[in-house]
Amino acid sequence: MADQKDSEIRPAEAIAKESDKKLKKALSLQDLFFLSMGGIIGSGWLLGVAGAAGTAGPASILSWIIGGVIVLFIALTFAEISGAIPKSGAIVRYPHLAYGGYTGYIIGWAYMLSAVTVPTVEAEAEIHHSNAYIYLSAFHVQ
User: Which of 75, 84, 87, 104 is the most exposed place for a label (fewest CB within 10 A)?
Assistant: First the structure.
């Protein structure tokens, strides 16, 4: 470590500014549409509707409408911020700029944890959901 010069050690913000200059638009409108639909639609809505309807009955539709409006506002907020600050790493960078480095760090790790764990949870949910229609002996839940 003592052999390294101080000029070789650069702050993260300087590295981020350089990487922002290298970005280019490579996704089409269709790519963005299907990428966002893949992020929105998961197996959670398949099982969430059944659980909510069992608990709240027909009033669960109202909770889905309220949740949809809240998600719409969050999406519009991110669209507005990304138009004002067109830089990479939005999910970490915007909280970092607004609330400080610690908040950006925590949100970054929370996002990574969700990205790692959600596919396995969705696979388990889909197996459980499909088990009602197709008998899978290896995954049968008694």
Answer: 84
Q: Is the dihedral of CA 26, 96, 102, 39 positive or negative?
A: negative
The CA distance from 125 to 128, in Å, is: 5
Whole-angstrom Cα distance, residue 17 to residue 40? 30
Q: Name the pTM for this structure.
A: 0.56
Q: Is the pLDDT of residue 11 over 80?
A: no
Which pLDDT belongs to residue 89?
78
Asked if 93 and 13 touch (Cβ cutoff 8 Å), the reply is no
Taking only the tens place, the pLDDT of each residue in 41-63 is 765 666 677 777 778 888 888 88
Structure tokens, 5 = 């010069």
How far is the CA of 124 from the CAs of 38, 128, 131, 135, in angstroms? 18, 6, 11, 15
